[in-house]
Amino acid sequence: MSITPKVLATVQKAGNAVHDANDAVDKAAKAASMRLMATMNSQQLSGSADKEFARWKSIARVLEELQEVEARMVDIYQRVGSMVEADTEVLASLPRLSHHERMVSSDQAVVDVESKPASSPVTSSGGKKAKHTLSRNDKTMMKFLVSRLNKKTPTALRQRDMSAATGIPPGSIGGTIARLVKNGLITEPSRGTLQLR
């Protein structure tokens, strides 16, 4: 049998019971002590003082033993707590389907995805549609480049400046430029220079 959370809870209940017993005996010991002091103040040499002392001494011994048991229960609880294994859920086995049943169930239509609207088609500066669609980064970069570039002369632009101006992460600038070149929207005559088509 492994140690489960249920076993740990049972050990905790036992520890709580010992703690409650300890509290009750402690109250009884205090009451016996008060009776003993009252008896000693009124009748120091009487036989009843000896009886009260013997009663108090017996209760004090039981209290001491209970305190030891309670300390031992705390130790046991901590050790058992470190051995608790998480409950493992056991899944019920699925029925085994025959080949025919699998084929019938696979013909059923299952739809679990949401469709997204398509990106806008790429258009070159000549108004011709390209084969690919623009991503959000592509559109943002193209807006920026149209304001900075022209068709006649190449313009030198640094990637970090483009990133700062567009908000596109620096690591995505190269890929964005490559897609725009591939789609025929811009050209890169030399490294670091761009030109509109």
Could you explain the architecture of this structure?
The chain has two domains: 5-83; 121-196, Arc Repressor Mutant, subunit A. The protein is 59% helix and 8% strand. It contains six helices and five strands; from the N terminus they run αααββαβααββ. The chain has helices spanning 5-42, 47-83, 99-106, 136-148, 159-166, 170-182; strands at residues 121-123, 129-133, 155-156, 186-187, 193-196. The chain has a three-stranded antiparallel sheet with strand order 3-5-4, covered by helices on one side. The chain has a two-stranded antiparallel ribbon with strand order 1-2. Strand 4 and strand 5 (193-196) form a beta hairpin. The two termini are 76 Å apart. 11% of the residues are buried. The model has no long low-confidence stretch (mean pLDDT 81).
Keywords for this entry:
Arc Repressor Mutant, subunit A, 197 residues, two-stranded antiparallel sheet, mainly alpha, 5 strands, 8% strand, 3-stranded antiparallel sheet
In this structure, how is the largest beta sheet organized? 3 strands, antiparallel
Strand content: 5-15%
**Nearest-integer average pLDDT:** 81
Helical proportion? Answer: 55-70%
Number of helices: 6
Shape call: elongated
Distance between the termini: 76 Å
Largest beta sheet: strand ordering: 3-5-4
Overall structural class, as computed from helix and strand content, comes to mainly alpha
Count of DSSP strands: 5
Q: Cα-atom Rg, whole angstroms?
A: 42 Å
